[in-house]
Design brief:
disordered N terminus, Dna Ligase, domain 1, globular, alpha+beta, four-stranded antiparallel beta sheet, five-stranded mixed beta sheet, 14 helices
């Protein structure tokens, strides 16, 4: 191992294997070799599969009711999405990663990029990748794969190879240019990060079928025929890092909270309870990002996939006089908008709230022609009240909520196969004996 390390950037992509299914299996050792699937909201479609379920041919996104026969025949264990469990397990994985490297960019609930620049001065890249893999499994109990490369796009490809080829042991070092080209020649272009099926069809029509062919395509042609984004992807495939490292996530431009109901809702009070809950949750996210909303939108709709049933879909928006992050104001305005679009006689299947035109406190500006604090009698008291509510709810979820959100549970998601919240609820701790 050389004492002199390169200053060129090197990234690792750490990705949890079959994350939702692995979380469910972690606390059920009896399911070690059992096929497991996790369903989407309202137990609709398959959103995660264990390796055993994949081997049986269970497809991603298939509606659960279409595989009832396979579930019985192969004794597939079915789970509803347990977001509380998955969120806490994700936090544990990311905490372990942050303890091992100076910079971590969390890409999704089960993926993160690590900055490994210069680490080869201390330890070889592949050896460090195995240290990361072993540490996460030892400390959290979840299997991960690690892909290492000089760009994020190549790190994605390396991670893809680590998952696909068991002989790699779950770690692939793709810092060698010759190895990069060998792998790219075997990878279909649709597997390249950011390409996807629709764009790959156009590329294949031009004779670009593999990642290597994309990397070797003239950059001017890619920009002219597609976009600067695809040109940037090709540069990344050639080992030129083009994506800026974000030490802090970019501020959100909008926040959406919506759900499909567990069963259809007909009455306005039940709709109000659901929408008030969504507005409250969206505003909590707003405060977490230290932002304020200038506009809100509410929508409701029936189920378009139910033939012979009257259909209705409507949305409405309102601009707030003063930007706010006060749940009371947001809920009040949301319910006012909901009442304007509600129509009796329909089976409502989904509703949602979106907050937009988000600004931080430096972007706050009162309306010149309106009294200050129109949307809140005292902004200082409002912020202190919201802080207290958030602190209470952080310790015990939804202990304090808007009164209008306390209605019938008709709007709750259908989760008939929900596992316990093993890591966040004392009463759900696994027992022995």
């Amino acid at each position: 191992m050389s004492d002199k390390g390169s200053t060129n950037p090197v990234f690792a992509l750490v990705d949890c294997n079959n994350f939702y299914a692995s979380c469910e299996k972690l606390f059920r050792p009896d399911l070690r070799d059992t096929p497991v699937v996790v369903l989407s909201n309202n137990d609709g479609c398959v959103v995660a599969r264990s390796k055993e379920a994949k081997a049986l041919g269970i497809k991603m996104g298939v509606p659960a009711h279409l595989i009832k026969t396979e579930i019985r025949r192969h004794r597939i264990q079915v789970f509803s999405s347990n977001y509380t469990l998955y969120g806490d397990m994700s936090r544990r994985v990311m905490t372990n990663l942050e303890a091992m490297v100076p910079r971590v960019d969390i890409y999704s609930i089960d993926e993160a990029f690590l900055d490994l620049t210069g680490i080869e001065r201390v330890v070889a890249f592949e050896a460090f990748g195995r240290q990361v893999k072993d540490a996460v499994y030892r400390n959290v109990g979840l299997p991960v794969c690690v892909g290492i490369a000089p760009t994020r796009t190549l790190a994605k490809l390396a991670n893809h190879a680590a998952k696909k080829y068991p002989a790699t042991g779950g770690v692939v070092d793709l810092t060698d240019p010759a190895r990069q080209r060998r792998l790219m020649a075997r990878v279909p272009v649709e597997e390249v990060w950011g390409v996807g099926r629709k764009l790959s069809a156009k590329l294949q029509a031009m004779g670009i079928a593999t990642a290597l062919q994309l990397a070797d395509t003239d950059l001017t042609t890619l920009r002219k025929c597609f976009s600067v984004v695809l040109e940037r992807t090709a540069r990344e495939l050639n080992g030129i890092s083009c994506l800026v490292w974000e030490d802090a996530p970019a501020p959100k431009k909008q926040i959406m909270c919506s759900r499909s109901f567990g069963r259809p809702i007909q009455t306005l009070p039940d709709l109000e309870a659901a929408v008030a809950q969504y507005a409250t949750r969206a505003t909590e996210k707003l405060r977490k990002g230290q932002q304020y909303a200038r506009e809100l939108m509410v929508f409701v709709r029936t189920n378009p996939f139910r033939p012979g049933v009257p259909q209705y879909s409507r949305s409405t928006s309102v601009r707030l006089v003063n930007p706010t992050q006060d749940s009371r104001v947001i809920v009040q305005r949301t319910l006012s908008q909901l009442r304007s679009i509600y129509r009796p006689g329909y089976d409502y299947a989904k509703a949602g709230v979106m907050l937009s035109e988000l600004v931080d406190d430096t972007g706050l500006q009162d309306d010149l022609f309106e009294p200050a604090n129109t949307d809140s009698s005292d902004s200082g008291k409002s912020e202190r009240l919201m802080t207290v509510i958030d602190e209470i709810n952080l310790r015990s979820r939804a202990t304090v909520f808007m009164a209008r959100a306390a209605g019938l549970a008709a709007h709750a998601m259908r989760r008939g196969y929900l596992s316990p919240a093993y890591t966040t609820d004392w009463n759900a701790l696994p027992g022995v004996g």
